[in-house]
Amino acid sequence: MSRSTFFRRFGSKEDVVFADHERILQQVNTRLADSRLEPLAAVADAALLVFDHHLRNRATSLARYGLLQAVPALRDRELVTSHRYERAFLRYLNDTLPRDGRREYAAVAFAAAVVAVHNAFLRQWLRAPFAAGESGQPDRAAALARELAALAETFRPTLLGPGAPVDATEQKAATVVVTVLAGPADKDAIARAVRDALP
C-alpha cells in the first residue's frame, strides 16, 4: 500500500491504532437498537460485546495497549474513544427510559460506570492476558457480566423505579463459552467441545 493510499484510507497514523473502534461502535449501536432486553441489561450486553472483541483479538489489543503505554497522545485519544462508548450508552438510555428529570443524571452515571467497570476489567486482562491461560477468558467475561449485572441492580430503582422487575435474562448469570480446538475441526467436534465446556 502506498503512503498516499494509506493516509487516504486512515487519515493519520493515530487513526490506524483505533481503526477497529469505528466498527465496534457501530456494532454497539446496532446491538442496542435491536435489543429486546430491558435498558440496563441492554447496555451491559453491549459492553460485553466490546470486551469480547478484545478477547477474540488478543494480539491487536495487546499491541495497542503497548503503544498506549509508550505514547501519551494515544492515551488521550483512547479517553476520547471511551467517551464515545459512554455517549452511545447514554443516548440509548435517554431514548428508552421513561422521561423523568430524576433519571437524567442517574443515566449519565450508569453509562459512565459501565464504561469504567469495562475498562478496569480490560486493563486487568491486558496487564496479564496469559495469567489464567486460555480457559481464563470465559471466566473474565463471566466476571464482567456479573459486575455489570450488580451495577445495573444498583441503578435499577432510580432508573426504572422501585420494584421494577428484573429482566429474566438477568436472573441467571451469563454463560460465556470459549473453546480452542487444535487444527481444523468438523461441526460435531465443535459442538462437542462447546457442550463439554458448559457448566
Tell me the name of the CATH class: Mainly Alpha
Supply the CATH superfamily name. Answer: Tetracycline Repressor, domain 2
Supply Rg. Answer: 19 Å
How many domain regions? 1
| Count of distinct strands | 0
N-to-C SSE string, H for helix and E for strand: HHHHHHHHHH
Structure class: mainly alpha
Number of helical segments with 4 or more residues: 10
Termini gap: 47 Å
- Global mean pLDDT: 79
Query: Helical content, roughly?
Result: over 70%
Shape: globular
The CATH topology corresponds to Tetracycline Repressor, domain 2
What CATH architecture do you see? Orthogonal Bundle
pLDDT below 50 for ≥5 consecutive residues: which ranges?
Answer: 6-11, 168-172
Strand content: under 5%
**Biggest sheet statistics:** none
How does this model look, in words?
The protein has 199 residues and is mostly helical. The chain has one domain: Tetracycline Repressor, domain 2 (Orthogonal Bundle), CATH 1.10.357. It has ten helices and no strands. The protein has helices spanning 3-10, 13-17, 19-34, 39-56, 58-70, 72-96, 101-127, 136-160, 168-171, 187-197. Helix 3 (19-34) runs antiparallel to helix 4 (39-56). The longest helix is centred in the middle third of the chain and has 27 residues, at 101-127. The radius of gyration is 19 Å and the shape is globular. The chain starts with a helix and ends with a helix.
